[in-house]
Specification:
mainly beta; Pnp Oxidase, Chain A; Thrombin, subunit H; 2 domains; nine-stranded mixed sheet; six-stranded antiparallel sheet; 15 strands
């Protein structure tokens, strides 16, 4: 007697041959979150959507002694990544690579690499990030570059500003099918650009717990990058925090935090004549 597999078991067997894909997550200062995959389709993993993106990585070099493990990825630049570079939030960002089975990412997964972005090189079209595991033996604390812009990440322990002090609660005043442009009277309560380079976190609705960086703030409108994965409905609640340009003006006039400024504003420029 011929027996026919159930549709459920057939689907299970088919799933065993599904492609294995890699997920790349870059968390910059807790504000900018970039989630990409080398798959041809989006993959949802632990509540985050990883979108297809042209990306290549080198082999992961594992150290047998106490030195750091390292790898690098090469990917096309985009507006969000460029903004993270100019706002000095990509350097030192948390970085991870996870290998998953596309049909069951939450069950069959391997964390291949976890560390931080150690070096960035970019051109007009291409970006290369070198990442390494934390090397507790060799780096100086705190790590700091001699530059005019502030070295600290906004709201970190060196910046010393408390996130909850500057966060505001709000409700969207109209829907946003694109998930990219949001409207609220909370935004218009502050001057233009107050929230630019900041971030917004949805606290209810389909996008609950998703965070996005704010690329522009004008009147009662903000633009986020990347867009929220789902349409944002009217009267959706959120928390929003202002951003910082990492210069003296913002540090003093916007946050009154000049005592903790992490840059060197009076360093002579390269062509200065002394």
């Amino acid at each position: 007697m011929t027996r026919v597999l159930s549709t459920g078991y057939s689907a299970h067997l088919a799933g065993l041959t599904q492609a294995v894909v890699e997920l790349y997550k870059i968390s910059a200062a807790g504000m900018s979150l970039f989630t990409y995959t080398d798959s041809k389709e989006s993959v949802t993993y632990h509540g985050l959507t990883y979108k297809p993106y042209p990306i290549k990585r080198s082999k992961i070099i594992f150290s047998a002694d106490l030195r750091v493990d390292q790898t690098s990825i090469s990917l096309a630049t985009n507006w969000g990544l460029n903004r993270a570079i100019t706002s000095n939030t990509l350097s030192g960002a948390a970085f991870s690579i996870t290998r998953v089975r596309k049909d069951a990412p939450d069950h069959d997964n391997i964390l291949l690499f976890e560390g931080e972005v150690a070096n960035i090189s970019s051109s007009f079209h291409q970006l290369e990030l070198r990442a390494q595991t934390l090397d507790f033996l060799n780096f100086l604390l705190p790590r700091r570059e001699i530059q005019v812009a502030c070295n600290w990440k906004l709201y970190d322990k060196f910046c010393s500003l408390g996130l909850t002090t500057y966060q505001s609660d709000g409700i969207t005043s109209q829907s946003s099918p694109s998930g990219k442009t949001l409207y609220s009277s909370t935004f218009s309560a502050k001057s233009n650009d107050y929230y630019t380079l900041g971030f917004i976190e949805m606290t209810d609705g389909d996008n609950k717990n998703f965070k996005r960086s704010i690329s522009d703030h004008t009147s009662n409108t903000i633009t986020v990058i990347p867009p929220f994965p789902y349409a944002v409905g009217q009267t959706t609640s959120f928390k929003v925090a202002p951003g910082c340009k990492h210069d003296l003006d913002d540090c003093e006039s916007k946050f009154n935090n000049l005592i903790n400024y992490g840059g060197f504003p009076f360093v002579p420029k390269q062509d200065a004549v002394l």
